[in-house]
Description:
- By secondary structure, this protein is α/β, with parallel strands linked by helices.
- The chain has a single domain (2-116), classed as Rossmann fold (3-Layer(aba) Sandwich), CATH 3.40.50.
- Helices cover 44% and strands 22% of the residues.
- It is globular and about 30 Å long.
Amino acid sequence: MKKILIVDDQVEVRELVQVTLEIGDYQILSAENGQQAIDIARAEHPDIILLDIMMPGSDVDGLEACRLLKADPVTADITIVMLSARGQEVDVENGKVAGADDYFTKPFSPIALIEKVESVIG
Length: 122
């Protein structure tokens, strides 16, 4: 069973993404901040991480978590898709510089999210 790690500081967003992806045969993991995401990724090695960029109050935001995950040999091969309400060109570029494999802007269509995940992990 493929594993998906959903990382967002807003529980409502995590639940929405989880409900959207539950139609597939996936094991859903979740984290509410960057440090939790790093810890879970190291322990569980998900196939894909859907990572929010802005997580106020977190010591490790999405961009920093992405950099740390891509720098760690244990997690470097995990596909990271940034999820953000910020869809400006500079935001997408910052995500790519941090090591993100793709970028998805919120709000998103549930069908588009399913298609994105399936294109990455089958």
